[in-house]
Amino acid sequence: MSQHYYHTNLSIQRVSGEIASLEDFYINLAIVDQRAQLDKDKALLEKQAAAVTRLPSSEEVQDTDYSKLITLEHLFDAQKLHDGSVGFPKRILIQGRAGIGKTTLCKKLVYDYQHQAAWRDHFKCVLWVPLRQLKTLQIYTLKKLLSEHYFASQTEAKALAKAFLAYRNQTLFILDGLDEVVSELDDSRPLSRFLTELLNQEHVLITSRPAGVDVPRLGQLDLKLETVGFTLDNVQSYIQKFVPQSNQDEIQQFINRRPVIQSLVNIPIQLDALCYSWNELPKDRSVSMSMLYEAIVDKLWRKDGDRLEKEAKVGKPFGSSVL
Predict the structure, then answer these.
(1) S-S: 299 plus which of 152, 277, 288, 291, CB 3.0-4.6 Å?
(2) Is the Cβ–Cβ distance between 226 and 96 less than 8 Å?
(3) Exposure of 139 in the CB half-sphere (CA atoms within 13 A)
(4) Would you give the end-to-end CA distance of the chain in angstroms?
(5) Phi and psi at residue 127, in whole multiples of 5°?
(6) What is the pTM assigned to this prediction?
(7) What contacts 305, CB < 8 A, 6 or more positions away?
(8) How far apart are CA 212 and CA 200, in angstroms?
């Protein structure tokens, strides 16, 4: 199943429009123990409230506490769980801001499973479910999801779906974007029963933005984590891998000299946009944030303006395509 359904989904579209494979593109995101991160955030906010120096959104990347850094390779290892016991995590919540790389993380998990990850033996199957698609597809049962979506082009789809259900307790369900469907958990909503069924599976990894998700409603969680994006080392690795060599030193110096830019580029898509738009920036040391945003917007409009104009002429809603 994974080879059939996921083959064309495990890629990344960069801001430039280029498609990159996960093997080439993915740079590990930092995942930290949420308890340690929340304690650090609380202390930082109290310090800022007293000093009235800067907004939390301009927090420097170096302030993040990486003492409890967890890599994807070891995510399913035996470890200390949220209740204080030691064991293999079965129910994991990973929260993160918009654009921080939660969906990319999900894709990477599927990709690693396909390519013999060390944790592969923990599961018979891995099923990645982008939750917002459930509303569009109007799918309300697991059997229908499997037979009509994941096995859509296979002649024995219903039989395969039935066989899959026998292994559901040995399947990792990756439920991506709970915040986008959280209102559907209301008992009066058509998706409520199915979403509850998915969330109650034996092995689940849930991603969500922090806002709007009632964590206690998710039941017992073994790990509560936060993905905090690129470290400065990740940023450097990205620049070395994807930026023309003639621009690498200049971009790296630009980032190193400006702490506020460091907090900007720890979000992968924003680092990608900065690198893509670099040649549009004035070549002096006084580049401001507003100049940076203007350069990015100008570059994107010139890349996509003709296409958006053509779509508008045929009545396609503005913004229906992803830049």
Answers:
(1) 277
(2) yes
(3) 20
(4) 30
(5) -125, 115
(6) 0.79
(7) none
(8) 19
